[in-house]
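Researcher: Please generate the 3D structure of the following complex. Treat every line as part of one assembly.
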Amino acid sequence: MYGEDRVYKKIEVIGTSKKSIEDAIQTAVSRANTSLEKLSWFEVGEVRGHVGDDGTVSEYQVVLKVAFQLK
Amino acid sequence: MYGEDRVYKKIEVIGTSKKSIEDAIQTAVSRANTSLEKLSWFEVGEVRGHVGDDGTVSEYQVVLKVAFQLK
Amino acid sequence: MYGEDRVYKKIEVIGTSKKSIEDAIQTAVSRANTSLEKLSWFEVGEVRGHVGDDGTVSEYQVVLKVAFQLK
Amino acid sequence: MYGEDRVYKKIEVIGTSKKSIEDAIQTAVSRANTSLEKLSWFEVGEVRGHVGDDGTVSEYQVVLKVAFQLK
Amino acid sequence: MYGEDRVYKKIEVIGTSKKSIEDAIQTAVSRANTSLEKLSWFEVGEVRGHVGDDGTVSEYQVVLKVAFQLK
Amino acid sequence: MYGEDRVYKKIEVIGTSKKSIEDAIQTAVSRANTSLEKLSWFEVGEVRGHVGDDGTVSEYQVVLKVAFQLK
Amino acid sequence: MYGEDRVYKKIEVIGTSKKSIEDAIQTAVSRANTSLEKLSWFEVGEVRGHVGDDGTVSEYQVVLKVAFQLK
Amino acid sequence: MYGEDRVYKKIEVIGTSKKSIEDAIQTAVSRANTSLEKLSWFEVGEVRGHVGDDGTVSEYQVVLKVAFQLK
Amino acid sequence: MYGEDRVYKKIEVIGTSKKSIEDAIQTAVSRANTSLEKLSWFEVGEVRGHVGDDGTVSEYQVVLKVAFQLK
Amino acid sequence: MYGEDRVYKKIEVIGTSKKSIEDAIQTAVSRANTSLEKLSWFEVGEVRGHVGDDGTVSEYQVVLKVAFQLK
Amino acid sequence: MYGEDRVYKKIEVIGTSKKSIEDAIQTAVSRANTSLEKLSWFEVGEVRGHVGDDGTVSEYQVVLKVAFQLK
Amino acid sequence: MYGEDRVYKKIEVIGTSKKSIEDAIQTAVSRANTSLEKLSWFEVGEVRGHVGDDGTVSEYQVVLKVAFQLK
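Model: Done. Output below.
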């Protein structure tokens, strides 16, 4: 893989999930994988979330960058 | 919700949990929700933790900001 | 003013306005001024906003810190 | 709106205006709204500008991120 | 101390002193300790100061966060 | 303009205005333009301000860098 | 513990896990605990990961600092 | 060029090269120039690289943002 | 002081001292006060230092910005 | 000293002291000097501390990087 | 050199070059060295550049700080 | 390579060179490769340098992190 010059592109996406931070990451990765080229890696930027009326975390929101190779 | 001028306040809190990062967030959100106004959202700042004598993570410590509307 | 030891407190608030960034700052400053002590200064952190269905900025959201002297 | 998993995409754009910072934001938001999906929100990154020969600000340049939902 | 879930709150304060940075920290800590709960720790953010007419530092201003446990 | 090697210098200034952020930028740009070389561009760093006794913003303070070519 | 002067050292490590962010932290903490002195705490820096051919997160990579007392 | 309102878009790309940092930048710029609109400028974010089995730098990886005008 | 538009300039200087951080600040403030206009305030950026052959701190180096009003 | 290629290593340590920030730096520098190679310089990262039961600063904790030449 | 109190000043400049990042640094250093005091060191801030009509990097622009001793 | 849990360690080093930034990176990488485990990758932090009496760059100093797998 190393040795030939390559170019990658990074896109910033936000995934949400009621369950966990990992699940919010997977939500974003799955969606980006279908509309873009096949992804290589991701980098988490921010972790945020929404609090429901009952005072529990009702949603995790993860801002991440996903990268894929331009061919 | 958008359209009338509103004011929110953000408070910085730290929640701990033996179980997971999500659980430490929920610990802080639950406690802040009772003493402050009803929370709207949260933003994770730092994730830290303590290591026990047996070399395992004994506690997650999550620094987060919680926001609520001033009415 | 300089010369005697003083203590200030900073609070993080968010003001919104349909009109301008300056108006959103004033919204937050006015509200904080009534519930807290008299404010001395403010520092803008983030400027964000909402986009309406017609593609125009429908609301400015300014995150700022306001400071007041603890007496 | 909260409750179902969603994915958003953020794009970095720069708008310019001779008039004001708010107008430069609107310039960028309007243009992004036509070529991309309908925008949800924006976040200001940098505010810069050009100085004309007469020593007055001849142009505001606002770097911002705009976000829209991937459906 | 580690083992039970706890919640801490962080408050941003500014202390001033004619003498030293350490004294400005102590000024802020003493004042916060009386009006808030008993403090656990502090974190220095910024160190600034004022210069008097004779060109000497007439005051140190230390911005710090102080933390205390919510019980 | 591009093609020959040039050198620019950046200076940090603060402008104030009772009216608006844009006016505070113009105040600083006008003053720097007379004492320094003709300015090329500016970059906003911080936006701060003072709150008057009546709880309204009495002054905007904008920290910016201004750049000019060394000839 | 507080009262006598102590010195701590911080080391930067990266742990990986197919399962979760918490598991990647534990992987790094366990490995560092055996080769270094007994660890006291950790601080998470970056969370990244790899995406497999099927578009799912195949690995979490957590960059963290671990601290231990120099005796 | 200054005077009419314009909108630019910034894209984040990564270029690699066995030879030099400048060459890795050119690799990314060339590739982005063909698939996107004609580029105006670039801004380097991170410089990283891979180390080969013989302990020499086998590849430079430069993360950069490239900007082009939306027309 | 507030009310009329003013312009300040900030200059970055480094002061050194064998004695303390405060003394290094004073060294820089004194020197800048003579060559520039009368200073108004300072902001500490970095604190560094040199270690002598005997393993003690032989010099503190404080990077600070000093500000003065342009009249 | 300048002219021949050299390599330095930086290590992150934390020193504590009941007395002052400078003393906490010296505590860390002394300890690092004995276990590592002879140190060349240090850079202060964070300044934190502990608050005792009587509301006074009971300990300064300074996070710093120390550098020494690899020979 | 260490031992007597000294004061340094840092100035921010931008150098450009068609050839390389190192050459853009040298352009700025040479120009600053003639108009200012003799320089001691430099610190690179940003690396940017311009892309020509043929899609190649037509100019490197390096933002750097240069430091010199105030005597 | 992906799939089994691994642990990496990152070390901060500084390499110098009279010739170029790339050469300073190689200087540090070569030295770290002999005293540590075989390196996997590097990340550039800061680029600095020294200016000689003749006003030319006499040395590049590159601060970088190098990473290697703990086995």
